[in-house]
Amino acid sequence: MEKVFHLGLTKADLQGASLAIVPGDPERSKRISEYLDSPVCLAQTREFHIYLGFLNESPVVICSTGIGGPSTSIAVEELAQLGITTFLRIGTTGAIQPHINEGDILVSTASVRLDGASQHFAPIEFPAVSDFHTTSAMVQACESLGITHHVGVTASSDTFYPGQERYDTYSGYVRKAYQGSCAEWQKLNVMNYEMESATLFTMCAALGLKAACLAGVLVNRTRQEIPNVDHQAVEKKAVTAVLKAAELLLSK
Ligand SMILES: O=P(O)(O)O[C@H]1O[C@H](CO)[C@@H](O)[C@H]1O
Ligand SMILES: O=c1cc[nH]c(=O)[nH]1
């Protein structure tokens, strides 16, 4: 088989892996790989840092998506061509409900499609819904590890600043369409903001692939706009949860 265009890998490179862990941050790929047995770096190209390792002897791929839907859609498409059918996103996030605390883990059942890329896969009426069994494994993982977690709907935006209604910016202006949007999502019981799950869920649901997403809370937007917590501690908890979910899925 030819190498896929962006990731630069062939099916043989993945050694039969069918499950991928997909963080946004490229540097996180390496940190996750260190929890696997015999990790090797397969490629580092653009925002895609790709590792292969083993979890209880099953091959697992880790591939960063970069920030946002367009690069996520490339990673998912090319990984699917290479044999990946299950995608576990592990991200960071901003909570918008007052009862959610920094350091909690949020498991997304579905996402509000505030992205553009998902519309290249399915019309806006199509739900950005996670895979039930894959998401259940994430919930079970959090429960078994005693991690404080919340399960619900996520708003997934193309932008970090206006799409998430941040005013503490260069211009201080948010265009009218997004003014009041955070309050509306709060009223509609949306848990949080992040930037990749709408594309990931829509694309995977439309293509018959399985996707789930969990994220560690870096900031509670009812209290402040920009995160200032210990990023690494929050990430470590989320990584522990996603690896446990992968282990549960691979043991079935
Ligand atoms: O920590 P990651 O996985 O990158 O996820 C979140 O962090 C980035 C924004 O800071 C966006 O990618 C958002 O979805
Ligand atoms: O508030 C936040 C924090 C992390 N990632 C986001 O997209 N938003």
TrEMBL record:
Q: Which reaction does it catalyse?
A: uridine + phosphate = alpha-D-ribose 1-phosphate + uracil
**What is this enzyme's EC?**
2.4.2.3
Report whether Lyase shows up as a keyword of the record. Answer: no
The keyword Transferase is annotated on this UniProt entry? yes
Q: Which GO terms describe its biological process?
A: nucleoside catabolic process; nucleotide catabolic process; UMP salvage
**Per its record, what are the GO molecular function terms?**
uridine phosphorylase activity
Please state every residue range assigned to the domain named Nucleoside phosphorylase.
Answer: 19-250
Q: In which pathway does it act?
A: Pyrimidine metabolism; UMP biosynthesis via salvage pathway; uracil from uridine (phosphorylase route): step 1/1
Top-level EC class: transferase
- What's the family? Belongs to the PNP/UDP phosphorylase family.
* The protein, known as: Uridine phosphorylase
